[in-house]
Amino acid sequence: MALPRAWLADGEAPTIERAATHFGPMSLRFRSEADRGRIRAVVDLPSRRVPRQMLLRFRHPDGKPVQRVEVNGRAWERFDVAREWVDLTSLEGRLEVTAYY
Questions:
Q1: Alpha-carbon distance 78 to 55, whole Å?
Q2: pLDDT (tens digit per residue) in 23-71
């Protein structure tokens, strides 16, 4: 359901490239800048079939809660602090998502 918190320690960059999914290939690249209060992700969403729901989970290595989120440089309000999810439902293509702590 999510990466281990340790994988998002400052400076880490876990990546999934062209993963085969039921919805088509997708890629996900995290870049942790946790010491500066942010974790970034670049997501190439699947395009063969549109998922009914698309959630991206950000787990700060120290368990800090998300304060705000940006998608493609714009403020994004569709996130759940308790579940650590950013709702990307209905978006398409390549997205840059940044969670701020």
A1: 10
A2: 999 999 999 999 999 999 999 999 888 889 999 999 999 999 999 999 9
What is the domain-level CATH number for residue 58? 2.60.40.1180
Domain that holds residue 77: 5-100
Instruction: Please state, as a whole number, how many other Cβ atoms lie within 10 Å of the Cβ of residue 82.
Output: 7
The radius of gyration computed from the CA coordinates of the chain, to the nearest angstrom, equals 13
Amino acid code (one letter) for 41: A
Domain tally for the chain? 1
The structure tokens listed for 87 are: 């709702």
Q: Which two tokens stand for residue 37?
A: 């209060």
How far from chain centre, in Å, is Cα 59? 9
- Specify whether the CB–CB gap between 2 and 60 falls below 8 A: no
- Rounded (5°) CA angle 11-16-18: 145
Beta bridge partners of 55: 87
Amino acid at the residue 92: E
